[in-house]
Structures are given as structure tokens and as C-alpha cells.
């Protein structure tokens, strides 16, 4: 390090041990040369640039030229305590000394003993959160003293406070965020090769800092599960942590730094503010959780019951849900039995019933009104739209419903029962039945009136529905001709009265009710049906006879082929055989027909020209399409009644175990039959 001074007086100079000393001679001129003297006792060190060869430290001494300083600057390397003392320079011009200058050169003392007060052996200073803490740094000054010697406090690379030697205090109010952080004291002096830095770590004692693993506000749909973790950070460690509702502690934990709030199934009543609280020796800390439970609205409808005299009728739908932003659907009007009456296209929470000009018709506003609303939150069934309903009963006059019959029937000489259906809110005070000659009340004549509550049909706003009402039946006298006339029923309550007329007519039997036109119509229909049946049967008979005639011709040819096989000697009197076996014949219901047939068969037994085969059995059996001798059947296309006639003849001749027979009649062609074999 170069330290050159040029003054007329003795100039103090400080050199750090081990540094190189440079001294210039201020009086040096261009044509001058310089001689240097030094300790001990101002011994000659150099003349011009020649160093005294007898100087004991000549190896460390030199005369050098330095720009702006001169040509004859004294240089001493590795300056030490032995080198301290007075140094003198003398300028010489033409061997004549001109000026001299003295330097008192001493070893410099660097600043030392940099200390942070109250720092523990582990390099920490303990402070209490939010309480004043002094950070004091001291230093022992060196020699020489310099104006630019400073002490400063820094934190995180930034300067907090700077001041002169020899002590500097920085006052802070630490928080938990300063805990375990480092502060630095920095000492600067020209005598120091680099600033001296002393570091201290803060140990801040603070009460617990609680935090959640979620936002401080949670929105959750009712019915879901909720788990929120609360953790605590404190110095010294947390001794207790728990959750608390107003006036209620939940989730208590005596050790550890976390506590969980668990709600298995969140209910709307569990919404609100929760606190997580933790404590240590310094104090208690807490954090707040705002739980917003979202749930579909419950719907309530507010209204007053109306009378038929009130024109302005208002119903207000008041949903209660969260969030409380609602969307309304159209209103529905239903009967007390759930029958749909009408929709009211009012998409708001306030329903003003349409005005009905006729007061009498305003009772039709009675029923159940349904308000449908949603806030976007589904219920447990997944339904978004929620409904609320209320019953409205309109008070007014009694009403005879549309389903009443204006014409009712009674039988001559019998009691008639006249029935009316009534709606009345409030209930009627009395009901009267009257004619032009008399008037009877239900109250005074319970023996001829019958009253009962009933479910009846009526028309509300053009829709048929079921309603609660009353059915009143009036028993008349035994009916005569003069009793079939009009009867008037009148119902009365505090709002007024209403009437209904019934025309009682005689109930006539159905046969007597046939008109003059109905008789001929029935006759024509019956005659047409009979005629159609006859025509169809005739057509079937004609077709059948034609088919039968073709079949007879074919059978005749087949029988002729067998005639040559029959001998005269084989012919027997079949009538004789039949007579011998008469005792075993069982007569069918048509026995007279069979006897006629047997007689004809006997009288024609001598014929040889026509025959068929017959089995020799002892009984005849009649069927629709067969004549059977024994169990042998003779095929015939006619019913038995067609075969037995005055012109019928049949000749049979025995042939072994068979008979051959031929039938003859007055027809042009003989009908031939062949027996079935067995």
C-alpha cells in the first residue's frame, strides 16, 4: 500500500504490518536528487537511487520512481515494528542541500473486537414477538482513525442502519416471520483489508400461528362429507390444539400440532363459523373457518284465505335455501285430491290470481297452489326443482255443482228420491226443498231429508275435478200423476243462498217406451234374416244333389261288374232270416222307419237284376248317412228319411258270409249300393 506525504512538518504515517511503505519527498525538483535517512538515528538509507550497501535491511529497501510522486520515492517491503521511526528526505541541487522533510512512520492498528451484545454462545439472540429488541454492535477502533470508518446493520442483503465507530444499536420489534433469521453487523475501515462481519440469529418466541389446509371459506352441498385440517406453528412448541364452535369444543387434542374437523354428513344447521385454537407458553392463536352449507330451498307459501267478495288475491312463495338466488317456475293450481286444474304463467315468487268477474265463480279458485323453485342445488334424490304448496279455501255462497241432474225419475205409486250435490264454504246453515205449494227444510224435517259428506265432481276453470261436498237427498210422497213436476232446492249460509231446479219425471218400462217406428223396424230385420237363411240352404241342397247324382252313376257301374258272380241257388229269402232273428232286434227311436224298411226288403227279395253286399247281423242301426244291418253300414248319400218311401225296394241275396243287395225305385236310374266288408 502506498502512503506518500509531503509536508514541511513531521508527518505521521501508519503502515500495516507486512505491507510495503512508500515515502515521497515533497521538495523534489526536476534537477534535484534526493537522499533518504531513517531509523535508527537517521541513518543514510540512499543517495540518488543508490541504497546504502551497509544497511542491514538493504534487501527490503529501494528507491523507485512513481508517477505524480517523484523519481526518488523510498520503498520498504514487509514493514514491521523494527522499521518504525522517523524518516527524512533531503533534496540536493548541485551538491547543495535545499529542503528536507520528516515522516514519523508507525505500525497501523486495525479495528478489532467486533461484538454483538447479548448474543448467546450458539450465536442467537432471543426476543419476544412484538416486543422491542435491541441489536447492539461494538468495535475497538484502530490507528489511525478515519472519518469513513463505519458500523452498519444489514438484513437479507439490505442495509438497515449505519453509524460511526465504536457502537451501533438497531431496535426492532420481531415477529414470527423473523424467527431463525440472520442479522449482520458490518465494520468498515480503510485499515481493514475487507469489512469485518459479525452475524447473529434471532430466536423469536411467539404464540401459535394456526392455518387451514383449505380456504377460510368453504362452500359444501348438504349431505356431503367434510374434513378440514388445522395445523399450528409456534415457538416454543404447541401444548394444545382444538376446534371450537360458539360455546362448544370439538376435536380436542392435548399434544401435537394438528387437529382435524370431520363432519361425516354435513347438515344445514352446521353452517357457520368455526375456530381452530392452539396454545403454548407465550399465548394462544386461532384461525376462523366460515362453513357455508348449500342446500335446496324449502318452500313456504304465505297467503290469507279469501272470500268471493275480494278481487285482489295474492299468494307469496318464500323459499329458504342457500345460495339464496332463486329461479321460479310457473305455478300450478290443483284440486284437494290432486287433480290438475290449470297452470299460472307467473315466473316469480308472487302470484296474483286472475280476476274472475262473476263472484259466484270465484269459489273455483279454491284448491292447492304449488310453487316450484330452485337455486341450482339438488336434493338427496338429485332433484333440482323443489316445490311448496298451500291450500286455499274461498269462502262464499253455496254452490250446486255441475254434476247435478236437472231431470230425475220416479215411479208411480212409489217414493221418489231427489238428490243434489252442494259445495259450501262455510257449510250451509240449512237446505230447503220447495214447490209452488210447499217448502220444507232439512233442519226441521230430518225424516225426509238425508245429508252426508261426499266426494263429488265439479268443473273448475273448465276442468272436471273431484271436490269435497255434501249430498242431500229428499224423499217425496208416494208418486201420483200430479206429483211429477218441478222441485226447487235452496242452500243458505251467511254469504247468501243458491238454488237448483229438478224436474221429476215418471220412469216408464222399456216395453212401453217402444215407439211406432221401432216395431216395423224389428219385423223387417227378422224377416230379412229368415229369407237369407232359406236362400242359403236351397243353394247348398242343389249343389249337394248334383254331386250325389254323379256318385250314384259311378257306384252303379261298379255293382254291375259283380252280377255274374251270383248264382240263382245262392239267393235266399232274406225276410225269412230276419223273421227268425226278430227276437234279438233292438229298435231305435225311429223303429217304425226300420220296420218299413224291413218290409220292403222282404217283398223285393226275389229280384235278381240288382243287388249289393250285406253282412248278416241281427239288428238295424239308423244314422244320418248310413243304413246298418248288424254292424255293416250301407253307404247312402241321403238321410234315412229319404230312403224310406212308397217307391222304395231293396233285394238282397246271400253270398257266403255276405249279402248282395240292389235298391229300386221309380227314378229313371236305379241307385246301387255296395256293402262294406268286415
Automatic annotation (TrEMBL):
<dbReference type="InterPro" id="IPR036179">
    <property type="entry name" value="Ig-like_dom_sf"/>
</dbReference>
<feature type="domain" description="Ig-like">
    <location>
        <begin position="297"/>
        <end position="393"/>
    </location>
</feature>
<keyword id="KW-1133">Transmembrane helix</keyword>
<feature type="transmembrane region" description="Helical">
    <location>
        <begin position="521"/>
        <end position="544"/>
    </location>
</feature>
<dbReference type="GO" id="GO:0005911">
    <property type="term" value="C:cell-cell junction"/>
</dbReference>
<dbReference type="InterPro" id="IPR007110">
    <property type="entry name" value="Ig-like_dom"/>
</dbReference>
<dbReference type="Pfam" id="PF07686">
    <property type="entry name" value="V-set"/>
</dbReference>
<keyword id="KW-0472">Membrane</keyword>
<feature type="domain" description="Ig-like">
    <location>
        <begin position="208"/>
        <end position="294"/>
    </location>
</feature>
<dbReference type="InterPro" id="IPR051275">
    <property type="entry name" value="Cell_adhesion_signaling"/>
</dbReference>
<dbReference type="GO" id="GO:0050839">
    <property type="term" value="F:cell adhesion molecule binding"/>
</dbReference>
<keyword id="KW-0325">Glycoprotein</keyword>
<dbReference type="InterPro" id="IPR003599">
    <property type="entry name" value="Ig_sub"/>
</dbReference>
<dbReference type="GO" id="GO:0005886">
    <property type="term" value="C:plasma membrane"/>
</dbReference>
<keyword id="KW-0812">Transmembrane</keyword>
<dbReference type="InterPro" id="IPR013783">
    <property type="entry name" value="Ig-like_fold"/>
</dbReference>
<dbReference type="Pfam" id="PF13927">
    <property type="entry name" value="Ig_3"/>
</dbReference>
<keyword id="KW-0393">Immunoglobulin domain</keyword>
<dbReference type="InterPro" id="IPR013106">
    <property type="entry name" value="Ig_V-set"/>
</dbReference>
<protein>
    <recommendedName>
        <fullName>Ig-like domain-containing protein</fullName>
    </recommendedName>
</protein>
<feature type="domain" description="Ig-like">
    <location>
        <begin position="1"/>
        <end position="106"/>
    </location>
</feature>
<keyword id="KW-1015">Disulfide bond</keyword>
<dbReference type="InterPro" id="IPR003598">
    <property type="entry name" value="Ig_sub2"/>
</dbReference>
<dbReference type="GO" id="GO:0098609">
    <property type="term" value="P:cell-cell adhesion"/>
</dbReference>
<feature type="domain" description="Ig-like">
    <location>
        <begin position="111"/>
        <end position="203"/>
    </location>
</feature>
Amino acid at each position: 500500500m502506498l502512503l506518500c506525504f509531503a509536508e514541511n512538518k513531521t508527518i505521521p504515517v501508519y503502515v500495516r504490518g507486512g505491507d510495503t511503505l512508500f515515502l515521497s519527498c515533497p521538495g523534489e525538483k526536476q534537477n534535484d536528487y534526493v537522499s533518504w535517512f531513517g531509523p535508527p538515528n537517521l541513518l543514510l538509507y540512499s543517495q540518488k537511487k543508490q541504497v546504502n550497501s551497509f544497511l542491514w535491511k538493504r534487501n527490503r529497501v529501494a528507491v523507485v520512481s512513481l508517477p505524480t510522486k517523484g523519481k526518488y520515492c523510498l520503498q520498504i517491503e514487509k514493514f514491521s515494528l523494527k522499521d518504525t521511526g522517523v524518516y527524512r528526505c533531503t533534496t540536493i541541487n548541485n551538491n547543495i542541500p535545499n529542503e528536507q522533510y520528516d515522516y514519523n512512520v508507525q505500525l497501523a492498528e486495525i479495528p478489532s473486537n467486533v461484538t454483538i451484545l447479548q448474543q448467546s454462545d450458539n450465536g442467537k439472540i432471543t426476543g419476544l414477538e412484538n416486543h422491542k429488541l435491541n441489536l447492539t454492535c461494538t468495535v475497538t477502533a484502530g490507528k489511525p482513525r478515519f472519518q469513513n470508518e463505519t458500523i452498519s446493520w444489514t438484513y437479507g442483503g439490505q442495509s438497515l442502519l449505519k453509524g460511526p465507530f465504536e457502537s451501533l444499536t438497531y431496535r426492532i420489534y420481531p415477529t414470527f416471520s423473523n424467527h431463525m433469521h440472520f442479522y449482520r453487523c458490518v465494520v468498515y475501515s480503510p485499515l481493514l483489508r475487507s469489512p469485518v462481519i459479525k452475524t447473529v440469529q434471532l430466536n423469536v418466541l411467539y404464540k401459535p400461528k394456526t392455518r387451514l389446509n383449505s380456504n377460510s371459506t368453504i362452500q359444501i352441498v348438504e349431505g356431503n362429507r367434510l374434513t378440514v385440517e388445522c395445523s399450528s406453528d409456534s415457538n416454543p412448541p404447541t401444548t394444545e390444539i382444538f376446534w371450537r364452535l360458539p360455546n362448544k369444543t370439538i376435536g380436542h387434542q392435548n399434544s401435537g400440532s394438528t387437529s382435524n374437523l370431520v363432519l361425516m354428513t354435513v347438515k344445514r344447521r352446521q353452517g357457520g363459523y368455526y375456530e381452530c385454537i392452539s396454545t403454548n407458553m407465550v399465548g394462544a392463536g386461532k384461525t376462523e373457518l366460515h362453513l357455508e352449507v348449500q342446500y335446496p330451498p324449502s318452500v313456504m307459501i304465505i297467503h290469507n284465505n279469501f272470500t268471493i267478495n275480494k278481487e285482489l288475491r295474492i299468494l307469496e312463495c318464500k323459499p329458504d335455501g342457500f345460495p339464496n338466488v332463486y329461479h321460479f317456475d310457473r305455478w300450478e293450481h290443483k284440486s284437494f285430491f290432486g287433480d290438475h286444474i290449470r297452470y299460472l304463467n307467473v315466473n316469480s315468487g308472487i302470484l296474483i290470481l286472475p280476476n274472475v268477474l262473476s263472484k259466484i265463480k270465484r269459489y273455483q279458485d279454491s284448491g292447492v297452489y304449488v310453487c316450484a323453485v330452485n337455486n341450482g342445488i339438488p336434493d338427496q334424490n338429485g332433484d333440482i326443482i323443489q316445490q311448496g304448496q298451500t291450500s286455499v279455501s274461498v269462502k262464499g255462497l253455496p254452490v250446486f255443482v255441475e254434476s247435478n241432474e236437472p231431470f230425475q225419475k220416479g215411479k208411480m205409486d212409489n217414493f221418489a228420491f231427489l238428490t243434489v250435490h252442494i259445495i259450501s264454504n262455510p257449510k250451509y246453515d240449512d237446505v230447503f226443498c220447495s214447490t209452488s205449494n210447499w217448502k220444507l227444510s232439512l233442519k226441521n224435517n230430518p225424516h225426509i231429508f238425508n245429508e252426508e259428506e261426499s266426494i263429488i265432481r265439479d268443473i273448475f276453470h273448465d276442468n272436471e275435478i273431484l271436490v269435497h261436498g255434501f249430498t242431500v237427498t229428499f224423499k217425496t210422497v208416494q208418486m201420483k200423476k200430479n206429483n211429477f213436476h218441478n222441485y226447487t232446492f235452496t242452500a243458505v249460509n251467511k254469504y247468501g243462498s243458491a238454488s237448483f231446479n229438478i224436474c221429476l219425471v215418471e220412469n216408464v218400462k222399456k216395453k212401453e217406451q217402444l215407439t211406432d217406428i221401432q216395431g216395423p223396424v224389428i219385423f223387417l230385420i227378422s224377416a230379412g234374416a229368415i229369407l237369407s237363411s232359406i236362400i242359403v240352404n236351397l243353394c247348398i241342397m242343389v249343389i249337394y244333389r248334383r254331386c250325389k247324382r254323379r256318385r250314384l252313376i259311378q257306384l252303379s257301374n261298379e255293382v254291375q261288374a259283380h252280377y255274374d258272380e251270383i248264382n240263382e241257388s245262392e239267393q235266399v229269402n232274406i225276410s225269412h232270416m230276419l223273421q227268425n232273428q226278430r227276437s234279438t232286434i233292438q229298435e231305435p227311436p225311429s223303429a217304425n222307419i226300420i220296420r218299413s224298411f224291413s218290409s220292403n226288403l222282404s217283398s223285393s227279395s226275389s229280384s235278381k237284376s240288382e243287388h249289393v253286399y250285406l253282412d248278416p247281423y241281427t239288428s238295424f242301426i239308423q244314422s244320418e248317412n248310413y243304413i246298418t244291418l248288424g254292424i255293416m253300414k250301407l253307404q247312402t248319400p241321403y238321410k234315412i228319411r229319404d230312403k224310406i218311401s212308397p217307391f222304395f225296394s231293396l233285394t238282397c241275396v246271400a253270398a257266403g258270409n255276405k249279402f248282395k243287395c240292389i235298391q229300386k225305385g221309380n227314378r229313371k236310374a236305379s241307385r246301387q249300393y255296395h256293402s262294406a266288408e268286415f
